[in-house]
Amino acid sequence: MSAVIPTPAVQEELSHLEPATISGRARKRLTSRWASLAALIIAVLWTLPTFGLLLTSFRPEQSLKTTGWWTWFTNPELTLQNYDEVLYGATALSTYFINSIVITIPAVIIPVTLACLAAYAFAWMNFPYRDTIFVAVFALQIVPLQIALIPLLSLYVDAGMRGSFWPLWISHTIFALPLAIFLLHNFFKEVPAELVEAARVDGAGHVTIFLRIMLPLVTPAIAAFGIFQFLWVWNDLLVAVTMVGGTRDVAPLTARIAELAGSQGTEWHLLTAGAFISMVIPVIVFLALQRYFVRGLLAGSVKG
Amino acid sequence: MDNSEKLVQMVLAIALFVALMGLVLLVAGRARRRADLWQSLAFMVPALLLLTVGLIYPAIRTGYQSFFDRTAENFVGLDNYQFVFTNDAMITVLRNTAIWVFLTPVLSTFIGLVYAVLVDRSRVEAAAKAVIFLPMAISLVGASIIWKFVYEFRPDQQGIEQIGLLNQVLVWLGAEPRQFLIGEPWNTLFLIVIMVWVQAGFAMTVLSAAIKAIPSDITEAAQLDGLTGVRMFRYITVPSIRPALVVVLTTIAIGTLKVFDIVRTMTGGQFGTSVISYEFYTQGFRTLNTGIASALAVVLFVLVVPIVVYNVRQMRKAEYR
């Protein structure tokens, strides 16, 4: 800021402004007190429902079905019984937990790998119609996955894959690719061309450049997308219920819990505990890798 | 299958994939230095093949099937579309979708923006943000369970206590408890609350970054001019982050158009709460009416396209300013 010597006129104006500024400052303090209150109210509204459910999941079945969780403060009692029952009882959530893991890990590794290869090709290789194909892949982000589900399912049935994990792995891979290729392409493109040229001069081929130079440099971007994809697959319900239904062999946690929620006479002691079991992993991943997640979010994403 | 068998399957699938990719890279690496085209193909073909077979072909096939009857055998012209736009139940579905797509982005963005401004540069900013942001990490199914419990209703009788927070608040205030998820058309609003609860964190994160990127000379000049509080927000903050606002609004609108999990978990589409994406699922996978389901998917696609195009153009603008 440049210093300005106040001319008499400006000085007059300033003296005129002085009281206004003081009252302005006072008003600011006042609004900031209201602002804190407003922020606090929003924060409470956003946490209270989750807190209520969490507390409920640790209350004995009989109490949680007859009284609200707020009565816990006058009548504190805690138990792990609900978790034990929902995991190993007739609901068998432990099985679905394993299913979710078995579905999610390949459904993250496969699309990220394929997208890295394709993104590198679009960014650093020369071939006919490169830009046209890239725009086409980019445009595929528009397609809502609903439009592909019914024909895709009959393809799986024809291929005899129904009832295995393959439909889920392949579907999640397909639906991830357009966004993944687009995002990773942008990051690959940012690598300085001199670096690639230097490697070429040294006799490195595309495979070497890709593995030795590119991958290490774009690891943060890969992590960002990987977290996105992880949360997306773990939390998905639509692909799960359309591709495999609710079968115990392959259905993920979300499908099972949605089913529990829909059944007659809500079993709140199972549902509350079950809901938290499904949330543990994504919340841990999210909190541990929040930095990457926010970066991915800000890189812009529209997911089918 | 028992659990260990599944884990073995997973490891085998990954090993198979890694081996396949290794082979592709090995072959591509062996290619003569001038054989650029072959190398490019090796890098791209796996992804392009999957996209063609798994996305482009099915999309075209869905469009084709939308002109056929429920078994996809007899051509029926535009009958499916006529049904979608004239049947009473479908009109409710379209109306609900419109309400969702309008209210969710507006409310989430408004709350996210206000909160971002309120906690900006406060001492507890990181923690305060995490609180709003955390619902983004959990599934919409989980979020629905959380709110289903808030809305839970118990009949208003002697000796029966409410276990849902909202109804208990009504009772404390001296009102009668009510069935939030059953009364039409208000139940749709109570479902929208869940989506707003989830999406506000997204809005807040993006908008908070945009607010921090406002050049400080602008805010300082405005402060010198005596702008504070609400007027600062109205005349400086909002205009400066307009591109980010548009991106947030449209992104949430796209996500909302496809919302399926909340309706399914909360009401199963009953009591007049269904939306297009849920109706698509019921028609296509419950009542097995391929024709109507395909038509609904096409309608969804047609609704999404203009929003995505607008979104992408705004994003470009925001980037290259």
From TrEMBL, chain A:
Keywords: Cell membrane, Membrane, Transmembrane, Transmembrane helix, Transport. GO terms for cellular component: plasma membrane. It is a multi-pass membrane protein. The chain crosses the membrane at residues 34-55, 96-121, 133-157, 169-188, 209-234, 268-289. It comes from the Bacteria. Gene3D superfamilies: MetI-like (1.10.3720.10). Residues 97-289 form the ABC transmembrane type-1 domain. Coiled coil: none annotated. InterPro entries: MetI-like, MetI-like_sf. Belongs to the binding-protein-dependent transport system permease family. This is Sugar ABC transporter permease. It comes from Jiangella anatolica. The lineage of its organism: Bacteria, Bacillati, Actinomycetota, Actinomycetes, Jiangellales.
